[in-house]
Design brief:
The complex is a heterodimer.
Chain A lengths: L1 H28 L4 H6 L6 H10 L6 H13 L12 H36 L4 H15 L2 H15 L16 H27 L2 H8 L4 H38 L5 H11 L2 H29 L7
Chain B lengths: L3 H16 L14 E10 L6 E11 L4 E5 L6 H9 L7 E9 L2 E2 L5 H7 L4 E4 L3 H4 L6 H13 L3 H14 L5 H4 L9 H13 L5 E5 L7 H18 L2 E6 L2 H7 L2 E6 L2 E7 H6 L4 H8 L3 E2 L4 E2 L44 E4 L2 E3 L4 H6 L1
Parallel strand pairs in B: 3-8, 3-9, 6-7, 7-8
Antiparallel strand pairs in B: 1-2, 1-4, 4-5, 9-10, 10-14, 11-12, 13-14
Classes of the chains: A mainly alpha, B alpha/beta.
The structure holds adenosine-5'-diphosphate (ADP) and magnesium ion (MG).
Keywords (chain A): Cell membrane, Membrane, Transmembrane, Transmembrane helix, Transport
InterPro entries (chain A): BPD_transp_1_N, MetI-like, MetI-like_sf
Subcellular location (chain A): Cell membrane
């Protein structure tokens, strides 16, 4: 197992290089001139523009630009944005915000998703089961943007139970954005849990557990839930990556100053250093959580072995 | 520590001897420990009602082995699962009586019934790989019997599991107790199931096709083991199978099932040498075929009926070479249901014309 993990970690290096280059190339290919856009209506003197170009290597060919960027990276220099702020500083300021938002979303996903799935799976065909089916269908079919704006209006503006936007009220301000960010994943978790639990309940080993004279609680919790949650845990782990991606939209809707919004804004300004730095970081998290999932999978299911 | 089931067992068993004169038990073994009377199981879910078991009665005495024989789909497993109390109710609907040591399990509360499973009646299944939980070690699953029923500590339960694994002749039990089911061979897995089922010294063991999924050589070893264990413990053994060879070797008595009913019971010798039901005769004369799973029955033209559409009269009549319409006041196989009746000393059959079969 240790060697397997080491090999997987080594493999992340080429993946990160590839990913960062792709993103770099995409920013490079964006139409328009970032420096001219930066200046807005009043054009900067040509000399200033040229100086800026030189500082950000904007006149070099793609490969040279990328090479200079990577050279900086290995020395721990993530570059600076056009206002001279180090990208690393932006990341370290905004990462905790996005981490909190994603964390809140994962907690919602786990608690609500699994609870709804388990209750529905245990009482299939019941009113609650149908309620879960309808609700989850709605959740996955309504675009997040719509869900976000509507809930923001209803709960924030009309009812006033949560802050409309921003993070000024601490953890409380993350509740609604976290829930919206979790919405689709939560629906999938509920569905997956329900199906998986129903499958497990029909399994031969559950019949055996009953034949052993175990009480219902032991049969359900020990011999059904654990087995049926294996695919759910796997899904949630792999889903952390897509939550990080979803944060880009949620943070924009709710005006949350996290990494997602940093990316959003930097793409508009064509600030390559920020976009590449942040997204490469997200890619790293994605790979990392996938590795965690694979390890967890082997822990939960003894039939899985990595050599 | 004795369970409440054990505590009350003696007095009830004493009552049984006098109460139930109809219980057929082999003379050498005494009062029955488990009696099934007019057991019926219907499945009422979507679609037509499935009459999986239609009035099954038998009794099993300590130390006795009774084989339940019949083609697949005739309700053998369902009747066993009804006895174990592991069918979902609903969709299953169970009537009749299942008396364990004189107490009807269908009349007692779920909790009392549960406490009988394990120390009273125990069951092993055909496919040990799917019947064992893949995510717990075999030692854990065997030891769970002690932990759940006797409150034994984890460590002691594991020691007991090792003892049991030794007893069912699993080599290097101490080293293998923490292994998982998928790490064992088919035969060894079935031994794990047996160890688990025997953990609390049950009075009755129901083995539902315990060797069907195994290689022929392994089948014999597992059957030998079961037989030895039964001799040591004096438990009653209900052996569900469609392997005539197994029945012949290990069983004292046999109950032949067809379409959810027992159509014939008697000692092995009687039933094998002189069947009293045309279906049994068909089974006996059928040519065993090798289909990769060992000897299988290849009986009688046609297939058993769907249990959702059982023919009227004798349910075997569409396939029966002796079936006849009534004339001159004689019973009509197509409309008159033949009762399971005594056709000779110690044997019963459910055929209007058993005597013709028996006496030529
Ligand atoms: N839960 C269930 N719902 C409906 N029908 C069932 C159910 N379980 C078993 N049956 C039906 O009961 C019949 C008898 O099955 P079974 O007892 O397994 O036969 P066998 O004699 O081969 O062991 C089969 O036709 C099967 O389809
Ligand atoms: Mg069966």
């Amino acid at each position: 197992m240790g060697r397997y993990v080491a090999r997987r970690l080594l493999l992340t290096i080429p993946v990160l290089i590839g990913a960062s280059f792709l993103i770099f190339a995409m920013v490079y290919a964006l139409p328009g001139d970032p420096i001219r856009a930066l200046a807005g209506d009043r054009p900067l003197p040509a000399a200033v523009q040229a100086a800026l170009r030189a500082e950000y290597n904007l006149d070099d060919p793609l490969l040279v630009q990328y090479g200079k960027y990577v050279l900086g990276l290995v020395q721990g220099d993530f570059g600076t944005d056009f206002s001279g702020r180090p990208v690393l500083q932006t990341i370290s300021e905004r990462l905790p915000v996005t981490a909190t938002l994603t964390g809140v979303a994962i907690v919602f996903e786990i608690i609500i998703g699994i609870a709804a799935g388990v209750l529905a799976g245990l009482r299939r065909g019941s009113f609650f089961d149908n309620l879960v089916l309808v609700t989850t269908t709605l959740l996955v079919s309504i675009p997040v943007l719509v869900l976000g704006f509507v809930s923001q209006y209803v709960f924030g503006v009309r009812l006033g139970v949560v802050p409309v936007a921003g993070i000024s009220e601490g953890l409380y301000s993350y509740l609604l954005p976290g829930l919206i960010l979790a919405a689709i994943s939560l629906a999938y978790v509920a569905r997956l849990t329900r199906t998986s639990l129903a499958d497990s309940l029909r399994a031969d080993y559950v019949r055996t557990a009953r034949a052993k004279g175990l009480d219902r609680r032991t049969v359900v919790v020990r011999h059904t839930l654990r087995n049926s949650l294996i695919p759910v845990v796997t899904f949630i782990g792999a889903d952390i990556g897509s939550l990080l991606g979803g944060a880009i939209i949620t943070e924009s809707v709710f005006n949350i100053p996290g990494l997602g919004r940093a990316v959003f804004e930097s793409v508009q300004r064509q600030e390559g250093a920020v976009v590449v730095g942040v997204i490469t970081l997200l890619v790293f998290f994605f790979i990392f959580f996938n590795l965690v999932v694979d390890v967890l999978y082997a822990v939960l299911d003894p039939r899985i072995r990595y050599e | 520590m004795t369970s409440p089931v054990h505590g009350s067992a003696g007095s009830h068993a004493a009552g049984t001897r006098t109460d139930d004169a109809t219980a057929t038990s082999s003379p050498r073994t005494g009062a029955p420990v488990l009696e099934v009377e007019d057991l019926r199981v219907e499945f009422r879910s979507r679609g037509p009602v499935v009459n999986a078991v239609n009035g099954v009665s038998y009794a099993i005495a300590p130390g006795e082995t009774m084989a339940i024989l019949g083609e697949s789909g005739c309700g053998k497993s369902v009747s066993a699962q009804a006895i174990m109390g592991i069918l979902d109710v609903p969709p299953a609907h169970i009537t009749g009586a299942i008396r364990f040591e004189g107490r009807d399990m269908l009349q007692m509360g779920a909790e009392d019934q549960r406490k009988i499973r394990g120390p009273g009646v125990s069951m092993i299944f055909q496919d040990a790989l799917s019947a064992l939980n893949p995510v717990y070690s075999v030692g854990d699953q065997i030891g769970e019997m002690f932990r759940a029923h006797r409150g034994t500590s984890k460590k002691e339960a594991k020691d007991r599991a090792v003892e049991l694994m030794d007893r069912v002749r699993i080599p290097a039990a101490r080293q293998r107790v923490d292994d998982y089911p998928h790490q064992f061979s088919g035969g060894m897995r079935q031994r794990v199931m047996i160890a688990m089922a025997l953990a609390l010294d049950p009075k009755v063991l129901i083995a539902d096709e315990p060797t069907t999924a195994l290689d022929v050589t392994v089948q014999a070893q597992v059957m030998d083991l079961l037989k030895d264990l039964q001799r040591d413990t004096g438990m009653g053994l209900i052996l569900i199978t469609h392997d005539l060879g197994v029945v012949n070797e290990v069983a004292d008595r046999v109950a032949v099932m067809y379409a959810g009913k027992v159509v014939e019971t008697g000692t092995i010798d009687d039933v094998f040498t002189r069947p009293a039901h045309p279906y049994t005769r068909g089974l006996m004369s059928s040519i065993p075929v090798l289909d990769g799973k060992g000897q299988r029955l290849n009986p009688i033209v046609g297939a058993p009926p769907s249990l959702a559409r059982i023919p009227p009269g004798c349910s075997f009549h569409p396939r029966c070479p002796m079936a006849r319409r009534g004339d001159g006041g004689r019973p009509d196989c197509t409309s008159d249901v033949p009762p399971l009746r005594e056709v000779a000393a110690g044997r019963r059959a459910a055929c209007h014309y058993s005597e013709e079969l028996l006496h030529g």
